[in-house]
Amino acid sequence: MEKAKAQINYDNPVISIRNLEKSFGDYHVLRGIDLDLFQGENLVVLGRSGTGKSVLIKLISGLLYPDSGSIDVLGNDVLTLDTRSLQELRIRIGFSFQNSALYDSMTVRKNLEFPLVRNKKGITRKEIDQSVESVLDAVSLSQTINQMPSELSGGQRKRIGIARTLILNPEIMLYDEPTAGLDPITCIEINELINEVQQRYHTSSIIITHDLTCAKMTGDRIAMLLDGQFQRVGNFNEVFATSDERVKPFYDYNFIQ
Amino acid sequence: MDTVSNTPPPVQKRNSKLKTRVTGFFVNLYDVSKFVVRFFKEAFVPPYEFKEIIRQCFEVGVRSLTLISLTGFIIGVIFTKQSRPSLTNFGANSWLPSLVSIAVMKALAPLVTAIIASGKVGSSIGAELGSMRVTEQIDAMEVSGTKPFKYLVCTRVIATTFTVPLLATYSALIALLGGYLNVSQNEGTSFSEFMESAFEPINFIDINASLVKAIVFGFTVGMVGCYQGYNSSKGTEGVGKAANNAVVIAMFLVFIEEVLIVQIAGWFR
């Protein structure tokens, strides 16, 4: 079940976060987070619901702004970028949403074409079709090309959501709860897809989850978010080799023993 | 044992509530102004979403056409029918076409069209964008390097701004047709006679004022719907609220604009 060793360049962090803080009203979600994501690495961020995992990747992609701290993504300080530079940076980051966020008024084909035609100037019809077919093939859903999102199952929607991010060949992938709400078999298929994406597209990824199977299958490194800070960072066994009463139940209540 | 209450006295509580409301109003006003300025900044710079604008124009037109046809026709017939007894008392039946056309072209057609558009189109824009917001579809557009504001808001506002004047003109013509059918049945007036006397009292300023009114109404309906939907939150409850606010606020603004434009047009006469 554990994943194969990936080629990680530990000299080249693609995301560097320092002393990041974010609150919503009186609720202090992130309290001074430090984090590095290295090139080629799959980093899993584990934590209970409401601990700020999704907030973290929304901060990285510039959807939210922190109260303080710094976020460096592919050599760009996200917090000082102007709108155009942020837009250019976002093309290099793929964001897979928890509920897939497929555009429900468009077919699968249109969903995939949407970011492509708006970001690649002068792209031909033939190139668009090739890109669409290629990413659909990567997620094994070529047959759904003319279907509407409402006609797809939960697992298929997740895959199309991932395909839509892959179409721009991102260097970084951000997965928000990729296995939430799916049956165990589909979960495993999605986990395998995340690893395939890492191998085939040479991406570095942050995977937000509270699913330990997902963490074990996809993570090269795991960071446990507790009380607004990363309390334990390391490989799966290192993170859970602890008597910390805040970490242990997390392991005990999952099905991995 | 003495107890000390921490609750502020009622007057203080009321004052603080009022202060929050007033602050909220100005914050909202600032947000709306920012939204409108953003529209003008983004709508007129390339790339243009022509296909989506045309699709939205079609949607706006199709959504309201049946209702506008029906309402326009009924207004024409009923207005003529109701005005006849009063005019008959003065022996001024021949003024019926002029009366109908003045009422319809100057006031009723743009106003009724805008109200129907608020209900049919404004609510639907509010609900659609609101649902896209809560299901993170707008965020998905944002993070994929595209411009959701341009694709979703600019296209819809341009579509309503173009389509509502067309619908208003269409509604005026249908209302005149309704009026003509009633007049020809009762007074035996021919079509050419009816049209001649219908357009006699209407001048260039009236037509322009009506067109400007319809354009402003269309812009308002689109802008309010988009603002409410684009900024909605709190899940499905937020979507319902966005749709509801889109109708109520758009109607309210349309009536205020009607008064202002009539006043301004009066200065030009």
TrEMBL record, chain A:
Residues 15-252 form the ABC transporter domain. InterPro entries: AAA+_ATPase, ABC_transporter-like_ATP-bd, ABC_transporter-like_CS, P-loop_NTPase. GO terms for molecular function: ATP binding. Keywords: ATP-binding, Nucleotide-binding, Transport. PROSITE patterns: ABC_TRANSPORTER_1, ABC_TRANSPORTER_2. This is ABC transporter ATP-binding protein. PANTHER family: PROTEIN TRIGALACTOSYLDIACYLGLYCEROL 3, CHLOROPLASTIC. It comes from Mucilaginibacter gynuensis.
UniProtKB/TrEMBL annotation, chain B:
It comes from the Bacteria. The chain crosses the membrane at residues 60-79, 99-117, 157-181, 201-225, 246-268. Keywords: Membrane, Transmembrane, Transmembrane helix. The keyword Transmembrane applies. The keyword Lyase does not apply. It holds the Pfam family MlaE. PANTHER family: ABC TRANSPORTER PERMEASE PROTEIN-RELATED. This is ABC transporter permease.
